[in-house]
Amino acid sequence: MSSKKTILCIGAGYVGGPTMAMIALKNPDYKVTVVDINADRINAWNSDNLPIYEPNLLDVVKKVRGKNLFFSTDVTLGIKDSYIIFVSVNTPTKNFGHGAGYAADLQFWEKTARQILHSSDENKIIIEKSTLPVRTAEAMESILNFNEKGISFDVLSNPEFLAEGTAIKDLENPDRVLIGSRETESGRRAREEIVKIYSSWVSEEQILTSNVWSTELSKLTANAFLAQRISSINSISAICEKTEADVDEVARAVGTDSRIGAKFLKASVGFGGSCFKKDILNLVYLSRHYGLSEVGDYWESVVKMNEYQEKRFVLNMLKEMFNTISGKRIAIFGFAFKADTGDIRESPAIYIVKTLLEEMANVVITDPQAINNAKIELGETLDDKVSYCTDPYEAANNAHAIAILTEWDIYKKLDYKAILQTMQKPAFIFDGRNILNHKELFKLGYNVTPIGKPSLRHF
Ligand code: NAD
Ligand code: UDX
User: Fold this and answer.
1) Most CB atoms within 10 A, among 75, 78, 185, 245?
2) Are 128 and 87 in contact (CB under 8 A)?
């Protein structure tokens, strides 16, 4: 019989790894194991070269790895040995068959459910950590509880709210932890077990409990609201560019209204990341599935606005550079979907680089963490048109333009005077994150195009 203080997490990705490292750190009396079918990932988790870049993650992992945190590929043994099982496998948008392009692809999820049943011979608590469509827990329960082994499973939902780049900070000081369960006696008992784990470092008021369906829907809703704020301010950035209003000024004025709040009002080249688009499309699918087509259309417009923002950025580049970039060298500063991560999933840089290549530009990509992922995404076939270098000065050398696509701190501190000497003239900077001092750059001699502010041109 496995001890009640044994935790397994299936899926050693951006969520499973950091989350379990924090749970192990805060609960030294629990044994925490993280398993994955991807052996390379597990090997990396067992080394000092972790499979994901996340500030301070290595420090946390080093404190607990080999003590009460273990990484392994043995999923069967992990299931057998653990009483509490978090499932944090990927749930991407389905790209085939019914619901393609909108619905969540639950194949990894369902495989996991079947594997848990196959390898279990006693009652267990199963927790959805992955982001899932509403009522997925019901499907999980159906697979698990209609068994001939005489064992039962409580299925709970405990969605993760961490953001990449700040995962450790978010896990250490979460705004809230949400735990949903069935309102049965056994459901409530299982919920208490999970509350106990988090309450070793999260205050009681910040641990919200709820029913499973509300919890599942809350996660999709939180991401949809966050993304909606970005699309809203980005839509205003387009108006600013036509009217000489300044989107940062507008955001500041709007955000000081305490009912609105200041966060997530930074106009940008567009939102990326593995969650926002996927989760909104999932919400759109759910809405339409329940016959709520207006609701689906409303949320889909958030994604469409994001695509429009990415497209507008490239069109602005073309327009500013005399409607042709064929043969011009363009330095892309940042390929990650945001700063402090090497993750490029749904990064606006992907669309932007591909479109620049269609326009026959020569693209050179620099990024402190994402170059390997960029190479995989863009593939070998584009080798003659794309190059990569870690040094931004080298990337800008001989370039006609620089496009800032990720808000890495280092790009704010470069010697742009020296860079200008090495560039083709007229030199252009397209600041897709509004992180640079545009007036200073203009004074140096650059032509500068920010987001949601008038371009500064020397001609
Ligand atoms: P990921 O792709 O980085 O990791 C998922 C891991 O699961 C992969 O390593 C994969 O090999 C493994 N896996 C798949 N099937 C498996 C199986 N049958 N057995 C063992 N391992 C298996 O994904 P992620 O970014 O960590 O996201 C996981 C979930 O968390 C998703 O549902 C996502 O929506 C959600 N989420 C992600 C974030 C984020 O910032 N990335 C934040 C909150 C929630
Ligand atoms: C998001 C949610 O924030 C997190 O709670 C959830 O658990 C997972 O999805 P993440 O995608 O990691 O996290 O990063 P986030 O900080 O939300 O940024 C997403 C995208 O929006 C990035 O491309 C970022 O650059 C962009 N963004 C964010 C803006 O363009 N403007 C803003 O004001 C904020």
Assistant:
1) 78
2) yes
Alpha carbon of 89 to ligand 1 centroid (Å): 4
pLDDT confidence of residue 113: 94
Do 26 and 115 share a structural domain? yes
pTM, whole model, 2 decimals?
A: 0.97
- Pair (73, 184) in one structural domain: yes
CATH code for the domain of 362: 3.40.50.720
Instruction: Provide mean pLDDT across the span 409-433.
Output: 98
How far apart CA 420 and CA 30 sit, in angstroms, is 56
The residue whose C-alpha atom lies closest to atom 38 belonging to ligand 1 is 15
327 and 416 together in one domain: yes
The answer as to whether 41 is a domain residue is yes
Percent of the chain whose predicted confidence (pLDDT) is above 70 = 99
| Ligand closest to CA 268 | 2
The whole-chain average pLDDT of the chain stands at: 96
- DSSP label at 104? B
139 close to 160: Cβ distance less than 8 angstroms: no
* Minimal-distance CA residue to ligand 1 atom 15: 108
Q: In sequence order, which residues have a C-beta less than 8 Å from that of residue 74 and are 6 or more positions away? A: 35
Q: What are phi and psi of 13, to 5 degrees?
A: -100, -150
Please write the tens of the pLDDT for every residue from 377-410.
998 666 689 999 999 999 999 999 999 999 999 9
**Stretch 150-170: mean pLDDT:** 97
Q: Which of 268, 281, 306, 313 to mutate to test the pocket of ligand 2 (most atoms within 8 A of CB)?
A: 268
- pLDDT at residue 137 in the model: 87
Catalytic residues, by residue number, are: 275
User: Residue 254 above 80 pLDDT?
Assistant: yes
Structure confidence by residue, pLDDT tens digits, 275-298: 999 999 999 999 999 999 999 999
Whether 418 and 279 share a structural domain: no
Tell me how far the alpha carbon of residue 417 lies from the centroid of ligand 1, in angstroms. 43
Q: How far is the CA of 399 from the centre of ligand 2 (A)?
A: 30
Cβ-in-10-Å burial (0-12, 13-18, 19+) of 383 comes to: exposed
Beta bridge partners of 221: none
Range of the domain at 341: 311-449
